[in-house]
Specification:
It is a single chain. With 223 residues, the protein is mostly helical. The chain has a single domain (3-211), classed as Up-down Bundle (Methane Monooxygenase Hydroxylase, Chain G, domain 1). It is built from seven helices and no strands. It has helices at residues 3-37, 41-72, 76-108, 120-141, 144-148, 150-174, 179-211. Helix 1 packs parallel to helix 3 (76-108) and helix 3 packs antiparallel against helix 7. The termini are far apart.
Amino acid sequence: MDKQRIFDKEMAELKDMILKMGVMVQGLIHKSVEALKNQNTEMAEEVIREDERVDQLELEIDEKCIELIALRQPEASDLRFLMTGSRIANDLERIGDLAEDIAQRTIALAGQPLLKPLIDIPKMAKLAQDSVAIVIDAFVKRDTGKAKTVWVKEKEVDRLRDLIHDELVEIMSKDANTVSRAIPLLLVSRHLERICDHATNIAEDVVYMVEARVVKHGGGEDS
């Protein structure tokens, strides 16, 4: 097998690793919020354990990117792919950590009834999952148009976060005894917002990889 075919095979393996990591963190987002919604501490503990595998996969991807850059001396487009792959793995690792943080909030609330049925937080979680799925698919297909669609979702997530914040602050202002149950929910909404921020980072990296230009939030002007 010639050097180019070996390199292409290694690049395909790297792409598969990133795709696998993306699927894993989508599962952690879903599972962490399901655990919260159902007050299922066993499921929350599963999220915490599974995040360790995400952490390990990030290290493996980072090592592979460094190795390919050092040994293969790739040309500009392939170099951007490898640099982007490393950054995406870092964002996915942070998303896994945020899902773990949500699981920790579930454990903190164990034994206490939820203040109200959760409606907007699951909506945020679905938007977050969809955003991760979109940007990973955009990375694999080098599709900048698809990548840029996540900015619309990010705005909707911000809107839902504000609704949750206002609602919980109102509840706490009326009854100080609710604070211990409201604060974890506030934190969960912020964790989900941050997940979408990381998905946006990945979208920006995809644009950089494909178009060799840097964009800010919103996919606007070159920086």
